[in-house]
Amino acid sequence: MTTDILKGIRVLDLSRMLSGPYCTMMLADHGAEVIKIEGAGGDTSRTNGPFRDDDPERLWAGYFVSLNRNKKSVQLNLKSEEGKAAFRALAATADVVVENFRPGVMERLGLSYESLAEANPKLVYAAIRGFGDPRTGESPYSDWPSYDVVAQAMGGVMAITGPNANSPTKVGPGVGDIFTGLMMSFGIMAALREAEATGKGQFTDVAMYDAMISLCERATYLHDMTGAVPGPEGNGHPFLAPFGVFPTTDGAIALGIVDDAFWQVLSQIMDRPELGSDPRYATRAARAIERGEVNRMVGEWTARHDKAALTDLLGGKVPFGPLNTIKDIFADPHVAARGMLTQIDHPSAGAKPWTVAANPLRFASRPERPYAPPPTLGEHDALVQSAAAPQIPQEDKLALRNAFGTFPTGVTVVTTRQADGTPRGFTANSFTSVSLDPPLLLVCIAKTAHSCDVFAEAGHFAINVLSEDQKAVSGLFASRSPDKFNEAGWHSGSENVPLLDDSLCTFACARHKLVDAGDHLVLIGRVLAHETTDKQPLGYHRGGYFSIGLEEELVKAAGEADNVAVGALVVKDGQVVLQAKQDGTYTLPTAPATSGNLDGLIAMLKDLGLSPVLEHLYAVYHDREADQHRIYYHGTVTGDIPATMRCFDFAGIPFDSITSAAERSMLSRYTKEFRHGSFGIYQGDQTTGTVNRIADRTRYEI
In angstroms, rounded to a whole number, what is the distance separating the alpha carbons of residues 309 and 315? Predict the structure, then answer.
């Protein structure tokens, strides 16, 4: 069965036969889009057989079916200019290219890694060679062709396999190909992880010869430490006994007795309990010295029983297993329970499905799906036409740029549909544009969000940038109410994604990439369509909503007056900072009359040795008694408090010593708002006005 854990990764597979196709099979089995690039005759394994009797045209070789499930096929002539251009177009959209040619083949075609990376810097280029690529270490055998048997012979596998030194034996499965391909699948994932983090791909290669040396790691350290040249051990082990294959009346079984405790259990089952305590055999080291005698005694005992009887005696008690033929494997209940033989539907209606060995990897949290059949030659040629992203007209780029500019600090609701069509959505505040060409948007999804899994699987979604009059909508979608879409007006947009009515702007997107980022998922979408309206945006800061256009309008109106005072409510280390006057009273820090603006206030605080951060408006009002407009910001300061200022805990603010009723009122309101981090903006005069709060505008009197 296949999973979609690698969904979104596109792989171009130029490889043939076993090593490369096995590598890309591992990727395709778990959701990567693997596109086989095949010439006129297709992958040579298409004709290698065996063929079933119901396939008179010999279209479906077992070799090809097993390795190329879940893949696509595009037919290209890479020796033609048209074919090269088509491959380049596909490579520009790919995450990975895999090939197993000899060094220099792709360079002679004008399709080297370096040339492909110019158009696609994130490309991971994976090359499987017999003896490696000169880029990573030039072997004297670089130009030699290689197949599995050559790799096994040169890499040391055959030198330690077989009954004796005079009978070097190739391992049955093509481990020279399969192990190399498996190693490369890991290399690809490692390089993709780095590309994900850095934006830069790379060339990676593995040599079949090198992979076999890695597989024979035991021979390496034995020769280094002892000077010995390990040879074939038959089915035994140089250090352990009893360890290997032992005869039965109807075949053979395998035993791997490593721990002394297992030897004692086996001795009891053999009805030879004395062997468990005999100093010649009681320890692993002793049995290694006497391994010939130990194996002989165990072999004489097993030869008196059949496999079924030994399974009853030994199964689950010691490391044991019967020697299975493929017929035995087909009948084994373990194989059925684990789903290790799976069927692939034949593309021809009514034809018998194929049975193949399944991928052994299991991911507990990922649903599994049936394998897709292998592709017919050139079945997916249309991918070439869709490879190049359509060019965006300049006027559309300008429209998108303007649309992106509508949400500098906006509040958004992200919406999609789950598999059964039910609309889902939630409020998100981490949102930005990523790229104009192609048009990409990014939104962060908390892993704790109720709909997180739905969005992680969705192919399409929408980002709705809320307008000022949608505060209630934001609160609704911040909840887990099952009726949120019944209470909010919405309509279907491109790809049937839900779009909220009256939004400042909506973007219908196709999923481009999903990236893990700590306690969030980063969802990047490619914009398919967008809608905008002429409204004020809704903003969010430290737990509170605010109308983004309000500050600018209020400050502009006040600033047009001739008599303006600018002050601040500032906090240092959780304490309010007040200006001390000579008569023992206090006031809020205020800019000098000669420079009554924010810059003047900041300059004054800096002259006093403080470092202010004043980013948010707190009040704009007209003091009618003094016929003066007052503008107050709120923020923080760092540095040593000068002698002309004092710091007070919120509970100890000397309200009786603050002469301005308006300042006393602001400090009282600020004390409450600071506690929960949600600040309003006061507008009015020194006694009556409006505080623009989270969900409404509250009448306020001093």
Answer: 10
| Rounded mean pLDDT, 308-325 | 97
> Does residue 533 sit within a domain?
yes
Q: What string of H, E and C letters represents the secondary structure of 139-202?
A: CCCCCCCCCHHHHHHHCCCHHHCCCCCCCCCCCCCCHHHHHHHHHHHHHHHHHHHHHHHHCCCC
Cα distances (Å, whole numbers) of residue 617 to 254, 434, 680:
79, 29, 9
Domain for residue 388, yes or no?
no
Quick: pLDDT tens for 658-685: 988 888 988 988 888 776 566 666 555 5
Strand extents, DSSP E, 307-438: 320-322, 341-344, 354-357, 412-417, 423-428, 431-436
Question: What is the spatial distance between Cα 30 and Cα 189, in angstroms, rounded to a whole number?
Answer: 12
DSSP 8-state assignment for residue 597: S
Q: Are residues 198 and 259 in the same domain?
A: no
Q: How much is the average pLDDT of 311-340?
A: 96
Per annotation, catalytic residue among 177, 345, 420, 640: 177
Where among 324, 350, 367 does a domain terminate? 324
Examine the domain organization and report whether 176 and 247 are in the same domain.
no
Residues 114 and 88 grouped into a single domain = yes
Q: Can you state the percent helix, strand and coil of the chain, rounding each to 5?
A: 35, 25, 40
Asked if residue 441 and residue 574 are part of one domain, the reply reads no
| 177 has catalytic annotation | yes
pLDDT higher for 540 or 200?
200
Contact 77, 40 (CB under 8 A): yes
Is 609 a member of any domain? yes
Q: Are residues 622 and 667 in the same domain?
A: yes
Q: Band of the pLDDT at 543, cuts 50, 70, 90?
A: low
Q: Average the pLDDT over 265-280 and give the result.
A: 96
> Which residue in 46, 87, 183 sits closest to 128, CA to CA?
183
**H helices, E strands: number in the chain:** 24, 31
**If pLDDT is split at 50, 70 and 90, which confidence band does 695 have?**
very low
Residue 338 in contact with residue 283, Cβ under 8 Å? Answer: no
Predicted confidence at residue 510, as pLDDT, reads 94
Mean pLDDT confidence for 284-305:
96
Whether residue 25 contacts residue 67, with contact meaning beta carbons closer than 8 Å, is answered with: yes
Torsion sign, CA atoms 373, 375, 381, 387: positive
- By residue range, what is the domain housing residue 273? 243-324
